[in-house]
Amino acid sequence: MNDFTFKNPTKIIFGKDSHLQLAEELKGYGKKVMLIFGKNSAKKSGVYSKVLDQLKDLEIKEFWGIEPNPRVETIRKALTLAKDFKPNILLAVGGGSVIDATKLISASYYTGSDPWEVVNDANQITKALPLATVLTVAATGSEMDCYSVITNWSEHKKNSWESTLVYPQFSILNPEFTYSLSALQTAYGIVDIYSHVLEQYMNTTKNALLQDRWAESIIQTLIEIGPKVIKDLDNYNLRANLMYCSTMALNGFISMGVSQDWATHNIEHELSAFYDIPHGAGLAVLTPHWLNEVKSQKHDKMAQYARRVWGLKGEDDEVIIEAIAKTYDFFFDLGIAMSLKDYGINDEHFKDMSDRLTPNKIGEIKLDQQQILNILNSSL
Fold this sequence. Notes:
The protein is of the alpha/beta class.
């Protein structure tokens, strides 16, 4: 196991009535709250009115319109509104995209820099506006981490960044707030959670026994409940377990003391930057082909994955191939189209993507340009 330092300051408030604690939690920050939303789903689902009921004694300002792959062009508008309103705290009401956008508003507020400059140089962040979240999508884990992914649509770039100053102060996790998600949106979330775990689990670090078991338990839970929640979208216990998996998948617990990969996410970010494909869809298509490409590099962990997660028996090479197939089938059975062609994507920009990715040396064991192209081409 590698040396590590760990701290996660976010307070999680979980349960059916968790949103009723919102006013009390906000009390210590001041009277002015700026709310950040996506398109219109919070109003359609009823979450909007439930949140506003808790903010009656506060001065609020609302910003609507954060995209599923949040765009810096929209975030610039939100930042302008924030600087005019001068809130004491930002409240993200939505899923990972809304939270990621809110983190960038928080980080950019005091810098005087354009938000895209902050994405590319997070070291300039020395102070951030406090933020909190009301989660409505179980997928990204943004409610309990310090990471954010932002798209610059005009440049067709999608970059990740991080700062410990943008951990949410607290996050309200009410599983009932995810009931309005469709089966396909829920499936995309399941894949995102699954992929987050794989990116941390599929490493070559030795003797991180507990981290491996934690990661395997999250994946096995997803395999158990994934097909069930797709068929029973208003089942509280299934939604609750899915939401908790999302939070635990990317809050730092399973990454302590191990190296990480993140090649699949980096490749998917390039796809989203050019085609705006749903993040979970891109990950579902790419992941089995990434596993196939790195199976020799990560032979021991792949065999462990096959045996512990999928319960397979046999020779290493045989169970590894079977585990990749089972991963593909799991995503497919959730109702996700498993070819890039299904999303109107061809190989037109693959060379551009690989040219941008190769110098970044993505992956725990760095992928060369041909390997990146292999993953993309086989995903067609």
